[in-house]
Design a protein that fits this description.
This protein is mainly alpha-helical. It has helices at 8-24, 28-47, 72-75, 78-86, 89-109, 111-118, and strands at 58-60, 68-70.
Length: 125
Amino acid sequence: MTTQRSYSKFEREIMDSFRHKLDLAESTEDVKKEFVLAVEHLLRKVFADELACMAEDIFLDAGAEPWYHFSPRLDKLERLQVERQSSDLSSIIERLAFKASKRYRHLGKNPEKTEAKIFPKPRQQ
């Protein structure tokens, strides 16, 4: 019988901050950045120094489930594959990605409105 590990403690540690940062995101790029940072943080907690993860290894895919993917380099690492199969790590990352993809799609619906918030036009007098 295999041991099932759970990382829900780490999820709870980062989820409130992640939600808050998503709420403050003003562009789809902000959403992608916050998702990548959250997953990097999670992977650092799970693997400590055993896994060299970079921002270029994590991608938000707001168009289709599971809402994210890893680079081929990271995806091939046996330690990560084992953890994804024998723990709730994939489910946690999917939940983060789902929340980020919802915000991404919301901000992507009306980019002019988002641009107006970031770069307001001066008032005409």
